[in-house]
Amino acid sequence: MRCTRCVIEFYTYCSLTIWKDCGKSVAEKYYLDENDPKIAYCETDFFRRLNLLCCDCGGALRGSYISSLGKKYHHEHFRCQLCRYPFRANDFYYEHDGRIFCRYDYCFEYAYLCKGCDTPILEQYIDMSHIDKTHYWHLECFMIRRYWNVPAIKANVTYHRGPLGWKDENGLELSQLQIEAWMKMQESKVHQIWRILSAFEENTASQISQIWLHVSSCQTLHAIQGCAAFLPFVETLFLSLFAVTKASLGDNMKRTAVSFSLVFL
Question: What is the pTM of this model?
C-alpha cells in the first residue's frame, strides 16, 4: 500500500484502491478516507487533512493540544523558539513574525526599548518619530514626560542589551531572574511616579479652585486660609524638583542651586 493525497497513479491491493503520493509504506498502519474507504493515508497525511499536526515537531495531535496564534502544538512542544523552554499553564509568552518566545528571549531579541526608562516594552506602547528616528515609549513613561516634563525615569541599576546578551554596568552577563527583577523594579517605580504626580495635580487643582471660589464670593478670610493651606503644595513641588534635578545633574548641582535661588527670589 502507498499513501496518497493526489491522483497520480493507482493499483489494486487487498481489494483497496490506493493512490500514490508520498511513497511511504502504509501496510502496517494506515487510515482510510471517511468518504471513500478505498483510499488510505499514512498517519501524517491523514492528520494533515484534519489540520491536526503539531507546528513544532510535525507529528500527529492525537489527544489534547494547545492552540495559539492559529497554530497547534503538543503540550510538551509549546515552547520558546530559541531556548526551547516549555511554557507552563500560567506562563507569559510573546509572538514575533508568527513565532513564540519566552519573556527573556523576546526582551533580548525583539522588544523595543522605552525612550524614557530604557527597559523593554512588552505591552502597549507609543511611537514618536523624531527627524529620521522613531522612539518608543511605555504609555506611563510618555504621559509622565508629556504632562510633567520628566524626560527620563531611570532605574537605580542600569542594564544594557548587547549583541551577546544583557550586561550590567561592569559588563557581566545577567541571568533571566536578574532581568525579571530589574524590569519589575522599574515598572513599580514608573507606576509610583505616575500615581504621585496624578494625585498631586488633582489635589493642587482642587486647592486652587477652592481659593478662587472664596475670592469670587468675597470671602477674604477663607481665601487667605486657602492660600495658607496651598503653600505646602508649592514647597513640596520645588523641593521635589530640586531633588530630581540634583539626581540628574550630579556635579552640576551648584549651577542648579543658583537657578533655584533665582526662582524663589
Answer: 0.60
